[in-house]
Design goal:
This protein is mostly helical and 544 residues long. It has 21 helices and six strands. The radius of gyration is 49 Å and the shape is elongated. InterPro entries: GCP, GCP_C, GCP_C_sf, GCP_N.
Length: 544
């Protein structure tokens, strides 16, 4: 059989240079090979839509003994190779890191894998670089916030915050500059040293950004100015209570004090001049239609959650209303006199009523002569309007006067002011102030150098220091610079004036006219005291 096959095949391939010899083992080999090829084709047909072909990923790799079916394993093997780890020097890495600290990149900075230094592991280096570069990004963003506000209309408190923020952040930049100088001088500085020296600064930058800056600048250009300022103050007040160490408390306190300086300026103008100073519309107080100072209703819900802001807003509004009412007290007196003399308010009120009457009269032209009348000549209407307006003004004046009197007595020691004035200008004999006036009278009679204002003022201050130390510096004695007709003591007394420095709002009660009258009484009493001293010093001799 073997020879037959050979002869048949050799007869068929007699024209070929190469002859193939078949035996039983060769036939089995080719049969097995064909079966494997057929199985491979069938396996590929049934598995060609596997997830690996579509998604490039397999949870469980299919196993097969056929070589053609192991394409996925071969692909994954050659695409998931590990790159060789490259070791770089600390000097090169530090120079590149410092360069990124000075350059602002619009894109996110990504650390290259398979790079490390000899002192730390790759994952530790990657963690440090990612944290450090992200901190530098936050640092540059906070520094550049000041320049963003240059061409934008925003609250003045926010500008002050940006300036204060730029002043408390430079320690990190100064440390980088110092490290750069060391590198240029070939000083051996490692990455670990840079991290240890600036770890606290890195943490403070991240703390300021995430706890303060990010909350303050959230949609800041889409909110009103008063909300920007209030949100800033509220965030700083909250963080100053939650800060965990002294350095963070110091930074937050510095920011808070600088931001509150804008509020203090408005409060100072309000309480010293009695007017609302709010050029950027960011103050927490507003003036109503009734000229009453109240805090903004939009801030009510957020203010109630903070005890400090609640008391601060309420006390400021209360003091502002007190000062405004005190400032209006003299204006009410002028208003009352204008009404009594048919002044401006009365004339305007009459004009408004005349317009209303004319408008109603035009609707009925037939009865025009019977319904039209002038308020100025109609006695009953004129009297009614006058009495009504006077009643309203006097009622409000009485309310304001009682309120102002109570405030002046309780808050500004008005009674103490009058007590001091009475004892000094009315020359109470039970107090040591009489010694000053005795010295003045004695100097006048002896015609010594008594015309020394500073010496007389000093004597009066020494007498007041024992009982009224807070008022001693408010008094001074001035002498009128004019020639007297005769060297008589009464002429000299008319030259003396006691000055009393009075501050707002007490000066609205103790006006300059009041002080002139007080000095007239003082000079009159001093003349009486001089006359009494002359009578007491009289000595009569009995004629012998």
């Amino acid at each position: 059989m073997r020879g037959l096959n050979y002869r048949v095949m050799s007869r068929r391939t007699s024209g070929l240079k190469r002859k193939i010899r078949f035996d039983g083992s060769d036939k089995q080999f080719f049969s097995k090979l064909m079966r494997r090829k057929a199985q491979s084709v069938e396996w590929l047909k049934s598995h060609r839509q596997h997830a690996w072909w579509n998604n490039g990923n397999l949870r469980e790799m299919p196993l097969s003994t056929m070589e053609d079916a192991n394409l996925a394993i071969i692909w994954e093997k050659f695409t998931r190779f590990e790159e060789k780890l490259n070791i770089v020097s600390d000097h090169k890495l530090l120079r590149e890191f410092l360069w990124f600290s000075l350059v602002s990149s619009p894109n996110a900075v990504i650390c290259r894998p398979y790079y490390s230094i000899s002192s730390v592991r790759p994952d530790t280096l990657n963690k440090f670089l990612s944290t450090g570069l992200d901190t530098l990004r936050l640092y540059r963003e906070m520094i550049s916030f000041r320049s963003q506000l240059c061409n934008v209309l925003c609250a003045h408190t926010l500008r002050v915050y940006a300036c204060a923020l730029a002043k408390i952040l430079p320690p990190l930049a100064e440390s980088f500059v110092h490290t750069e100088r060391l590198l240029r001088s070939d000083h051996k500085v490692t990455l670990l040293e840079l991290w240890m020296d600036n770890e606290a600064e890195f943490m403070n930058v991240r703390y300021i950004y995430y706890n303060v800056h990010a909350r303050v600048t959230t949609a800041w250009n889409q909110t009103p100015h008063y909300m920007q300022a209030h949100n800033l103050i509220q965030v700083l007040l909250h963080e100053i209570q939650e800060a965990s160490n002294s350095s963070r408390i110091s930074m937050i306190t510095s920011l808070l004090v600088r931001c509150l300086s804008v509020y203090f300026e408005s409060v100072d103008v309000l309480l010293s001049e009695g007017r609302l100073y709010d050029p950027c519309n960011e103050f927490f107080l507003i003036s109503t239609m009734d000229n009453e100072i109240v805090h903004r209703p939009q801030l009510s819900s957020s203010v109630e959650s903070n005890e400090f802001l609640t008391s601060f807003y309420e006390e400021t509004a209360s003091c502002a209303n007190d000062f405004i009412l005190v400032d209006k007290l003299n204006k009410l007196i002028e208003l009352e006199s204008c009404i009594e003399n048919k002044g401006t308010m009365y004339a305007e009120f009459v004009q408004i009523l005349n317009k209303k009457f004319r408008a109603s009269d035009s609707q009925d032209q037939d009865n025009e002569q019977n319904t039209r009348f002038q308020l100025d000549t109609h006695y009953a209407v004129d009297t009614t309007l006058r009495s009504t307006i006077l009643h309203l003004v006097r009622t409000r004046k009485h309310i304001v006067s009682c309120f102002i009197k109570r405030q002046l007595l309780q808050s500004y020691n008005l009674f103490l002011h009058f007590t001091v004035l009475c004892r000094v200008l009315l020359i109470d004999t039970e107090y040591p102030y009489l010694t000053v006036y005795k010295y003045i009278l004695h100097s006048m009679e002896s015609e010594l150098g008594w015309r020394n204002e500073f010496h007389l003022t000093h004597l009066l201050e020494e007498c007041l220091d024992s009982e009224f130390p807070h008022f001693s510096s408010h008094f001074s004695i001035s002498l009128e610079d004019r020639e007297v007709t005769s060297p008589h003591t009464l002429e000299f007394i008319d030259l003396i004036t006691i000055n009393f420095k009075i501050e707002l709002p007490v000066d609205l009660v103790l006006t300059s006219d009041c002080m002139i009258k007080y000095n007239m009484i003082f000079r009159f009493i001093l003349k009486i005291k001089w006359a009494l001293s002359l009578v007491q010093n009289l000595h009569f001799k009995v004629p012998q």
